[in-house]
Amino acid sequence: MVNANPPDRYDEERLGELIALLPPAPTGWVRAAQELPAARRDLDEIVERARADAEFRLRLVADLEQALANEGYVPRAELLAAVRAHLRET
Amino acid sequence: MVTEVTDARLVERCRAGEAAAWNELVERFSRYVYAIAVRAFRLPKHDAEDVFQDVFARTYERLDSLRDDTAIRPWIAQLTRNACVDRLRSGGREELIAEPLEGEADAAIEKLDEALAVHEGLHALSPGCREILDRFFAQDESYRTIGEALDLPAGTVASRISRCLGKLRTELEGRNRDPGTSGGW
What's residue B97's pLDDT? Predict the structure, then answer.
């Protein structure tokens, strides 16, 4: 049997509850995810250069953060970790 | 009235390499991914952050494999669900991923789907309404804090919240019937 008086789907209380279920994610997390494509591009570029340029690779191994900063990259933690992992593997 | 880019169009623009589109995609789904991790799976913050970054990294890497661009939301939900389960498993918290609890998480995700639809409805309202409802309900700000931020008396904040909820309700109940009536306070 169909209820003649179905509950109000969007009464104010329910709307408030549903809005509250999705608070904003921390700003830093969102920014890091948004920067992902640029970070990937930087990583690809650095890896390619380290492969082709032995001197650059040596500078990276000696002082990664400084070497990247000298080349104009922002030495973000994720980028440093990814380049470090690449240097270890190759 | 704000015209939102459809999910499918947004995915298409991301695939074409548009940086602004990627930013918008992250913005559009960031609350959803966050809520699945912290509410549906109750991950602690540091685990939730790893899941959050992992989900968007996978989304970025695998966007080409998405067969139906309109299905980006359930696809992201599935990526997030899998990442949360993997995280619980890798932390040795097998007891938290027993079947009944996974069922609970799925029920919570269903509710978050509904919440996401309501948030999409918010985007059809005026920026003022959107902001006041988001501050009060999603960011849990008091009338006083909102009043100070928006330069409004606390009593006005309460009446605007009520009025904006009414507009949101109209929007959600009649989106296809009567678009374009939700602007203004």
Answer: 58
Question: Which residues in chain B touch residue A29, judged by CB atoms under 8 angstroms apart?
Answer: 30, 34, 49, 52-53
Residues in chain A closer than 8 A to B163 (CB atoms) = none
Say which CATH number the domain at B173 has: 1.10.10
Q: Which of B79, B107, B123 finishes a domain?
A: B123
Within this chain, do residues B104 and B130 fall inside the same structural domain, yes or no? no
Instruction: Count other Cβ atoms within 10 Å, centred on residue B151.
Output: 7
Whether residue B119 contacts residue B112, with contact meaning beta carbons closer than 8 Å, is answered with no
Residues B81, B28 share a domain: yes
Give yes or no: residues B7 and B86 share one domain.
yes
* pTM listed for this prediction: 0.82
- Cβ of A22 within 8 Å of Cβ of B33? The answer is no
**A residues 7..26 contacting B (CB < 8 A):** 9-12, 15-26
How far is it, in rounded angstroms, from Cα B136 to Cα A30? 21
**Given an 8 Å threshold on Cβ–Cβ distance, is B115 in contact with A33?**
no
- Residue that is last in its domain, among B90, B106, B123: B123
Is B124:B47 a contact under the CB 8 Å cutoff?
A: no
- What proportion of chain B, given as a percentage, has pLDDT over 90? 78
CA-CA distance, B7 to B54, in Å (whole number)?
A: 21
**What are A61-71's pLDDT values in tens digits?**
999 999 999 99
Tally of structural domains, chain B? 2
- Domain around B163: 126-185
Q: What is the ipTM of this complex?
A: 0.85
